[in-house]
Every structure is written in structure tokens, then in C-alpha cells.
Amino acid sequence: MLDWKIYRQQLIDTIGQIARLSPDVVRGYNTLSASGAKTNHLEPKTRELIALAVAVSLRCDGCITTHTDAAIKQGASKEEIAEALGVAVSINAGAALVYSARVMDAYEAHAESAVPAMK
Q1: Residues 32-59: tens digit of each pLDDT
Q2: CATH assignment of 4-110, given 3.90.1210.10, 1.10.10.10, 1.20.1290.10, 1.10.10.60?
């Protein structure tokens, strides 16, 4: 298993290097990242739980370690995190089902004009 604490620190260090090379990119990211918190429509813990579900959906290890740490600091329990991850699982399964329907639709469109293969 990955040592998440070491990995998080490595990311912080490497992103620091990127910030020195391209400060506007990292500054823009930080502005975007902080913008949701300014409205205060969602509690910080809720935002972190959403971030974890999205992190899993996007398969972003950096997001996972960062937002797991933040969720814990915002008071999220293991059970709350598990529930948020359950949402990610169901949404991803639903997305796969929806895209499966798209494949079937594409099949129908292609099959209408396809010439059968000769044996």
C-alpha cells in the first residue's frame, strides 16, 4: 500500500517546484480551489466528502490523500467517508450503465449501414 502521508508531502514539494516555474498556473488553481468555500452554502465537511467522491471517480491519488486529510480535520467520520464513497460507486456504476446504452445506440447506427463480413 501507498504511504499516503509521505505521498502527500511529496506532492506538496513537487507542486511547490511547479509553482516556482509557473506561478500563475498554481495561483489560478488555488483561486479556483478556494472559491467554493467563499459562498458558504455547504459546510466544509460536506465539501470534503464531495471532493472524496469526485477524487475516487477521477482516480486521483493526490486528491484522495489531500481531501481525506481535510475531511478528517473537518470532523468527518470513517462512516461518513464510507457513505460518500458509496455514492461514488453508485454514480460510477450508473455512468457505466448510461454509457453502455450509448454503445448499444452506436451499434444500431453502425449496424444499419454495415456490410456483413464474408466467411
Answers
A1: 989 888 888 999 999 999 999 999 999 9
A2: 1.20.1290.10
